[in-house]
Write a structure and sequence with these properties.
Keywords: Electron transport, Heme, Iron, Metal-binding, Periplasm, Repeat, Transport. By secondary structure, the chain is mainly α. It has helices at residues 14-29, 48-60, 67-71, 76-87, 98-110, 121-124, 145-156, 167-172, 177-189. The radius of gyration is 17 Å and the shape is globular. The N and C termini lie far apart (45 Å).
Length: 192
């Protein structure tokens, strides 16, 4: 060997994460990461890599009046612990407006070729429950429609810019208000 050892992978402790979540995150993100307030995201069942990315972004570069002050005091280990905890929690199902969800499903699965909107399923999986953990693309199924709508509007207006290579900003810039509402409802109704 050349005398260099590979760094051990950093792993979170779900039990420590639960204690931290119950003390700091519970008020907004709800029991087990299932927010009861539709403008705050559900964290239950989310990829740990995505949660780590978001918390580190809040600590380092993503200004948000609610989350930045909450994330700043977290140690790197606490971030890993929270991510490990939330990843193991079951998410509560959502219900969708059937008419909007039907329109949203088409957009999610196939995009809108006329306006250049790519299919959401290409990155977030065929049913919104997979995402791609290594790429840090989130799971979207059962997420609150209000939160998803707000997030897409923030990407569209470049109020949120922590997406790799501007991928979400580029896709959201082509979405109409009606398309945002429809895909948000569709995702809220997915149970995977």
């Amino acid at each position: 060997t050349d005398g260099h050892q590979a760094a051990a992978p950093q792993v979170g402790d779900p039990q420590a994460g639960e204690a931290k979540a119950n003390g700091v995150c519970l008020a907004c993100h709800g029991p087990q990461g299932n927010s009861l307030v539709p403008i705050w995201p559900k964290l239950a069942g989310q990829h740990p890599e995505y949660i780590v990315k978001q918390l580190m972004d809040f600590k380092q570069r993503r200004a948000n009046e609610q989350m930045t002050p909450m994330a700043m005091p977290l140690t790197d280990q606490e971030v890993l612990d929270l991510a490990a905890y939330y990843a193991t929690q079951p998410k509560t199902p959502g219900a969708a407006d059937p008419e909007l969800a039907s329109k949203g499903e088409s957009l999610y699965r196939w995009g809108n070729p006329e306006t250049g909107v790519p299919a959401c399923s290409g990155c977030h999986g065929p049913a919104g429950g997979a995402g791609q953990s290594l790429a840090k693309f989130p799971r979207l199924s059962a997420q609150h429609a209000d939160y998803t709508k707000q997030t897409l509007e923030h990407f569209r207006g470049a109020l949120r810019a922590n997406d790799p290579n501007g991928m979400m900003r580029g896709a959201a810039a082509r979405l109409s208000d009606q398309e945002i509402a429809a895909v948000s409802q569709y995702l809220q109704g997915l149970s995977q």
